[in-house]
Amino acid sequence: MDIVKISAMGIITAFCVVMLREQKSEIAMLVGIAGGCLILLSLIDYFTQIFATLSAIASKTGIPSSVYKSVMKIISIGYIADFSAGIVEDTGQKALAEKIILGGKLIIMVIALPIITLLFDTIAGVLS
Fold first, then answer.
1. Percent with pLDDT over 90 in the chain
2. How far apart are CA 83 and CA 64, in angstroms?
3. 4-7 contacts: CB < 8 A, separation 24 or more?
């Protein structure tokens, strides 16, 4: 079970960070980042499966590739912003972490605008 492995990595990393924080706070932060990166690396196969499945669905349904690419960008930006903000927040910079999240949301909105426009055009075409 991968969740057990991921949970164990997280618990061990958190324990190491707590132990190191008292003596070497700068190393503790690096250990926390390294643990988070290891967890992300262990999830690459799942990301690959998700992207492959969504790509297959998009090709079967005739969804334009631009829409598929935009959705993949939106998902990726959300994960990257959340992960980055979590790291920054762990360093005690909550205000900076919130700005990373805001930046991610704004970028997602800009990328989603063509999809929203396409949706409204499709609805308008069906109604007329």
1. 41
2. 29
3. 5/42, 6/39, 6/42, 6/43
Separation CA 81–CA 83 (nearest Å): 6
Residue with tokens 């909105």: 109
Quote the CA–CA distance of 13 and 28 in Å, as a whole number. Answer: 9
Neighbours of 81 (CB within 10 A): 19
Cβ atoms < 10 Å from Cβ of 60? 8
3-class secondary structure, 62: coil
Q: Please say whether the beta carbons of 83 and 97 come within 8 A.
A: no
pLDDT exceeds cutoff 90 at 104: yes
Split at pLDDT 50, 70, 90, the class of 63 is confident
